[in-house]
Design a protein that fits this description.
Layout: H1 10-31, H2 36-46, H3 58-63, H4 67-79
Helix pairs in contact: 1-2, 1-4
Length: 81
């Protein structure tokens, strides 16, 4: 009945921001006719930005996300932790 406080971790906010960025990159890749999953995996494994299109600023967006943070966010989401 009293006031309740929602608790959000730093990871929640960071993961949300990473999710939004990856979604924008995914959409840009799809719009250009690429297979977004293959392109993103190629980028993650190699850190070669040419896997990501410049369409809609996608390449600039993905380069702002640290790969370690991206992988951690993906694992947290995949494992629901």
């Amino acid at each position: 009945m009293g006031d309740s406080t929602a608790i959000f971790s730093i990871h929640d906010k960071k993961d949300y921001e990473i999710h939004e960025t990856v979604q924008q990159v995914y959409d840009a890749l799809k719009e250009k006719g690429y297979n977004p999953i293959n392109q993103l995996v190629g980028y993650i494994l190699s850190e070669d930005p040419t896997y990501i299109t410049t369409h809609n600023g996608a390449r600039s967006l993905i380069r702002k996300v640290d790969r370690d943070d991206l992988l951690q966010a993906m694992l947290r989401d995949y494992l629901n932790v």
